[in-house]
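TA notes. Do not distribute before section.
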Amino acid sequence: MTNFRHFAHSIPGRIIEVEGKSYRWLGGTNYLGIGEHPLFNEKLKKGIDLFPQNWGSSRKNNIQFSVWNDLENTLAEKQGHEAAALCSSGFAAGQIALQFLLKQYPGARYSLAPYSHPAISTFQHSPFDGSRASWIQHGIKEKVKIIGTDGIRTPFVELFDFNWTKDLHQEQFLLIDESHRIGVQDIQINSSAQLLQTASLSKAYGIPGGIIMGSQSLIDEIKKDPLWIGSSPPNLAFCYACLHAQKAYEEQREILTENVTLFQSGLSASSVIWAPGHPSFCTTNENIIQKLENHGFKMNQFSYPQWNDPAIGRASIHATLKKADIMELSQLLQE
């Protein structure tokens, strides 16, 4: 399978134009299609009026903006956490949280789950070489101090069961990258370990930023760390839009849930790789990709995370798709 590359001139919503042809767009991670909602656009324009340029200063600068604290509190409450720390990106959020834990416990073992995102790894800590089941048993039996994993496997879609985290101990730390679940699925985890969840806000939430969520005590300490203090905060205008367009997110999430339910209700389990309730699906079958393209659907084809990995096809059911699009797509995959 070849990598698909196209230089777009605008962010695709329901439709993408490729080489003069229009396709229903199934690629990307813009799950909620929040940029299509008039309330979000209204609040973004207001945010740009209030904050017409980026503010690339430290979060400890003597000039502060309440929109950061307000958005942290809003997102922490919605995701079932006591507190949160905004970052410039999801990658920064993962690295800041991980480096904080590694500095707090020098020499502590860090066990990273198979296929985990580079945001929660270092050059000294590669993903576990074995099955996820073996990795879980290793973390529990050996009482590994810091345990890291994604909330869902990506780009191949695989839901993870987190019931095993109840068997961890209070002195252990569980770090989870939730970039592909936050905003589209429930991410609350009842773990006996001390929990930190990080995420990109540029996917479902559609704003350039990241977030670290956890207990008040952990977040307070992270906000004292030079990595967080010295890193740039997220864009103020987009934070303002996210904060004041929560109703838009709720409405788009309802549409997305309906679309995913409709799609998956008629989906053959063997045609593509998918996970119940999640908007994404994948395939390595070039015939399926070509068939969808012939009928006006375009998905991603790319190598990930290594530049020379075999390319795969990854698609998502977005909130911008129409019911007729979804029914046609389901029928094509059944055939």
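Switch to the second chain here.
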Amino acid sequence: MRIPFSALLGMIFTGAFFLAAIFADFIAPYPLDAAVGGVWESPSSTYWLGTDTIGRDILSRLIYGGQITIFVATASSLLAFGLGSFLGFLAATQGGWVDQALSRLVDLVMAIPSLIIALVVLSVLPISLTVLILVMGILDATRVFRLSRAVAMDITVMDYVEAARLRGEGKGWIIFREILPNALSPLVAEFGLRFIFAVLFISTLSFLGLGIQPPLADWGGMVKENKDALIYGKSAALMPALAIAALAISVNLVADWILSRTTSLKGGRGA
């Protein structure tokens, strides 16, 4: 199997981001909240990416911020896919009023912008990592539901699913042994895209003040903290913004390759 250069590049950068997040405590030059220099110092041999609004090392903050950003995005994406896929498969296999009730509920939630729902909920609930993951995961599960239901609807009419029904297999068997293995490819590709949206979503919430709260840090919060540096021609706010863009692009390159490979395999089987 030949991996395109763009996908290989995406894998390398994505792997680097995840490794930096996992081993943040070992590779960050300075502690998360240590003021080690002057305000908004330019990049130098001492502070590779400069310092922020109170003299903290931006590189260290980026590494620790990536740890929080990636953790929240990954956890919320896993929750979204676990919940959305199960309900989507259930709606496709059960049909009838179960399908109608779940589909209309999802349509109702999706009719309201996710950011507005999140802002309303987070303005009422105490903000913590658990609450953020639950809110983001449940909201994103509606998108996963629609995809998984559409994929499952195509699979449920296949002969092997009908044969499982005739053997008397239950809904659980059909969902986890017949539908899920055959729906993994499009779901894996979609997982990458949903992960990107989760990164952008948590960064947006933090920029608005309802995301990750101090003393923790994430990339969106770093942009907010250092946005005034742009007035003085400093790059402190650009570094976390570039990190968000780089992670989004690298994951998207991998997801696009998986999606194109899935499409080509389907085309080959159809031929």
